[in-house]
Amino acid sequence: MAYPVSTGGSDQWQTSDGNKHDSMGAAQIAQDNIDSGKNMSFTNQQSSSGPKSLFDDPAYLEKHRKDMEEIRKSGNAVVDAHSRKLDSILDKYYRTVQKLHIEGNDFFRKQNWNGAIEALTKALSIYTSNQFEKFKKELFDHAHHVNKYWNKNSSKSEKLEDCPEYDFAETAIKTWQNDMERCREWLEMAKKNSVLFTKADELCGQGNRFKGQGNLDQAISCFSQAISYSGEWKAYCQRGRCYEEQGNIDQAIADFNSAIDSAVKKFGEITRADFMYQELYGNRDRLIEKAEQIKPIEERIVSLIRDGKAQSAFDVEKPKWEEIVGREMTNEDLDRIFGKK
Fold this sequence. Notes:
Elements: H1 26-36, H2 58-73, H3 77-109, H4 113-127, H5 131-153, H6 164-212, H7 216-230, H8 233-246, H9 249-267, H10 277-306, H11 310-325, H12 331-340
Helix pairs in contact: 2-3, 3-4, 3-5, 3-6, 4-6, 5-6, 6-7, 7-8, 8-9, 9-10, 10-11
């Protein structure tokens, strides 16, 4: 009988530009790589050599299970016994570490670094334990037993290396080794990301303190640094509010759009029932409406000043602008308004 054999897979951890990245967002690079499917493990990329993870393709073990069911229905007690033995080896050694590895990578994609570190650490401890040697021994012992049985009870002699069970054993062993290295790499990245996101949280805390003191420029600087570390949606929202208070509505809208993109990457589609919907879409839409109200006022201010009617601009249009924005217009606002025209 023949067992399904896994196909090739490719993994890279270096970013596509070949450069090293540090404070400018190793976590964001990791997340971008996951999203784009370019350079991280567990993508759908294929190559002509090297085994793919047994759980990289969800259909793989399901196909194996169905194959086992078909064999058992065949009524061949000997083949059924061989199949059950192989299945029991996978259950005994591989599926436990498989479950932990999948759990760790799910945590990683959700940016739950502590959860990822815990699960991947447990998985790596199994990968690097004596379980591997036991797994390998039982697979090859099984292949040898099956080969010996068929050579004894068949008119044709088959080399051990040509036995499907031997081929499966080699594939499973290479897969274990590759998955171990993947687990080690993901664990290392999770640890680095944990440090980066912790730093980003600290910077957001500093930014909020500066914002509370009315120092918006310094607050924006802190939030910008936080974004470079983590790309977290909350940091974009906080910086967007600062831009709004400065009257820079266009930049505020851009930040809330970036926050939406970041949140969707992390959580998936966000519906009205989600707690963050109003925070993201509600504020973005409110700002768009505010921008539509401010734009014609700013255009009239520029036009009046250029026509030598500055007094009319300040007496008529400036109060309208200040009512919508919620504060007095400054010289910096005028510079920005003229810079946009």
